[in-house]
Specification:
Family: Belongs to the PPase family.
Number of helices: 3
Largest sheet: 5 strands, mixed, barrel
Helix content: 10-25%
CATH architecture: Alpha-Beta Complex
Distance between the termini: 27 Å
Enzyme class: hydrolase
Keywords: Cytoplasm, Hydrolase, Magnesium, Metal-binding
Subunit structure: Homohexamer.
Radius of gyration: 16 Å
Oligomer: single chain
Shape: globular
Number of strands: 8
CATH topology: Inorganic Pyrophosphatase
Order of helices and strands: HEEEEEEEHEH
Catalytic activity: diphosphate + H2O = 2 phosphate + H(+)
Amino acid sequence: MNHFNPWHDVERGEKTPSIVNGIIEIPKGSKGKYELDKTSGLLKLDRVLFSAVHYPAAYGFIPQTYCDDKDPLDILVICSVDVVPMCIIEAKVIGVMQMVDQNEEDDKIIAVAANDVSVNHFNDISDLPPHTLLEMRRFFEDYKALEHKQVTVERFMGREDAYRIIEESIKLYNETFPMGSATPEPTKQAANIEL
């Protein structure tokens, strides 16, 4: 049975890697950890964060990308309005947060909403207010620590590094899924995207 899957069936965007389509799973301020169910293409509530932390930006993934953790590439999109889950947002890439999660590399692209005049003047991660990056770092380190998981935010890097990481994830996607969603996954993984 063929069905629409946002990961495989939504385009990355014509201006990739500078402007990409981000598919939002979790709105800014949410304590709910929503994630795409890889098999059905629907959004599911994975869990509710049990601490005084909430997502510092809209959070999701870049379609038609693939990383070593068997998931699409994560993206954080800064926007002045709340973005609803499963919304496609044109995201201007400005940098990347490099994390190590349970001894696995876990890059998170940082972007601003391309069609939001209150943030789209930011061109590189160095343009952001320092507290924005601190908030992102603390969120991921704190919420994972409360779940007894070891996470280290290694560093923030600028847009050129982010472009390279996006290109690598596209190459890996094309190698892993040469027929798009028609190709079965190489290994039977759990049907959820880990954030």
